Automatic annotation (TrEMBL):
Coiled coil: none annotated. It comes from the Eukaryota. InterPro entries: Beta-lactam-related (IPR001466), Beta-lactam/transpept-like (IPR012338), Diverse_Enzym_Activities (IPR050789). PANTHER family: BETA-LACTAMASE FAMILY PROTEIN (AFU_ORTHOLOGUE AFUA_5G07500) (PTHR43283:SF3), BETA-LACTAMASE-RELATED (PTHR43283). It holds the Pfam family Beta-lactamase. This is Beta-lactamase-related domain-containing protein. Residues 6-380 form the Beta-lactamase-related domain.
Length: 421
């Protein structure tokens, strides 16, 4: 596998097409199929630490499925139900208005939603919530309100959680910060701060010593620096990090981890809630199978339109493209699911998602395989990162490497920069 992947991974790092990157693939027994790092924590600084699967990095939205598992634990205990109105556990959510376009004078037209947000809606991104960097109307609203766009990571203040809905709850899918509200609900039900709950009931039982909300001094010195890449391909290190003590602990993106640590969490999902080596169980098998590996959009009553589609509203944040562009897809209570085998990778019924800093994972129960690629740069869904994620998946399944992203059989399409006008 190294013979296939080294030229692709090392080649892009050496040419500074992307910064340091790590990748891990495991089988269902926890045996290592691939585990390697490339490059340095600061792209142009060869004296900075080398990247390895043990290098800490921001997990971005890879955090979401961890928060979903935490919420499912509470549902298993009978402390909540999927059909509960979210306001039963977090009353302020009822105060959110619905953005119905803009008036002639440019002011937002805000109305009271007709439908209630359910826990099911928060899990499945059907609550009406959106990210301002993926939704032009919400971005326009935030600017009009005098708020800083794209401040979910840099601030994580309550301000981000008073944004209006952009559609009626339960009527369609749009990827957004609903999981952040699940985090707030976990805190209300458990009486614990979200990061403390995750540490006690997920990270500690699984022995994930490098997974949490903060970084110690050693981890700081080895941290995979977040870079910005412009349309000309130049990489620039940034000081961007998740706040360690934010006003709101965002369930959608608060975690730091390492590639190898997070892969152990994915291994538990691969085995329906139980780690195959330690036998530690964090979810019942039926919960994992029925909720994490099953499309839940039919239960919501809406279509899968938009699932896997990545828009580009702000060029510095995200490129545009599609995950599994030719496969029928759905959304479970943990991520993207596919109804069909992928020609050059995962089998039907797999679970997958990603993180904004170009982190990509999948879990395939039918084949008993998982993979995780971690880089640390923006914009998201950038072509070079997609090529690495696609390459790892192809190698794990013994397929030939793609010559370019978007060719027939690719696991991704797009990855192109938005041209600002």
């Amino acid at each position: 596998m190294e013979a296939q992947l080294d030229p692709i991974f090392q080649g892009r790092v050496d040419s500074q097409a992307l910064p340091g990157v790590a990748a891990v693939a495991l089988n269902a027994n926890g045996d290592v199929l691939f585990s390697k790092g490339y490059g340095n924590t600061i792209s142009a600084d060869k004296n900075s630490p080398t990247v390895a699967p043990s290098t800490p990095a921001m997990m971005w939205s890879c955090t979401k499925v961890v928060t979903c598992v935490a919420m499912l634990q509470l549902i298993e205990q009978g402390k909540a139900e999927l059909t509960d109105p979210a306001s039963k556990h977090y009353p302020p959510i009822k105060d959110l208005k619905l953005l119905k376009g803009f008036n002639d004078d440019g002011t937002p037209n805000l109305v009271q939603p007709e439908k209630e947000i359910l826990l099911l809606h928060l899990f499945t991104h059907t609550s009406g919530m959106a990210y301002d960097f993926f939704n032009a109307d919400l971005l326009r609203w935030r600017v009009h309100a005098g708020q800083e766009p794209v401040s979910y990571v840099t601030k994580s203040s309550m301000e981000e959680y008073t944004s209006p809905l952009v559609f009626e709850p339960g009527t369609r899918y749009e990827y957004g910060p609903g999981i952040d509200f699940l985090g707030l609900i976990i805190e209300k039900i458990s009486g614990m701060r979200l990061d403390k709950y995750v540490d006690k009931y997920i990270s500690q039982p699984l022995g994930l010593k490098s997974t949490g909300v903060g970084l110690n001094d050693e981890q700081l010195n080895n941290f995979m620096t977040v870079h910005a890449k412009d349309a000309e391909g130049k990489l620039t290190p940034t000081p961007l990090r998740m706040k360690e003590d934010p006003e709101v602990m965002p369930g959608g993106h608060f975690l730091y981890s390492t590639t190898e640590d997070y892969a152990q969490f994915l291994l538990v999902l691969l085995n329906n809630g139980t780690h195959p080596k330690s036998n530690v169980q964090i979810l019942k098998a039926e919960t994992a199978k029925d909720y994490l590996f099953t499309d839940m959009l039919p239960q919501v009553g809406c279509s899968a339109a938009g699932v896997g589609e990545v828009p580009s509203i702000i060029a510095a944040v995200s490129c545009e493209g599609t995950m599994l562009p030719r496969a029928k897809k759905g959304w479970s209570l943990g991520g993207l699911t596919n109804y069909e085998d992928v020609p050059n990778g995962r089998k039907k019924g797999s679970l997958a998602w990603a993180g904004l800093g170009n982190c990509y994972w999948w879990v395939d129960q039918e084949e008993g395989k998982l993979g995780f690629v971690v880089s640390s740069y923006l914009p998201f869904f950038e072509r070079d990162a997609l090529h690495l994620a696609d390459a790892l998946e192809r190698a794990v399944y013994g397929k030939e490497m793609a010559t370019e992203i978007g060719e027939k059989g690719s696991n991704f399409s797009g990855g192109d920069y938005k041209v600002e006008t």
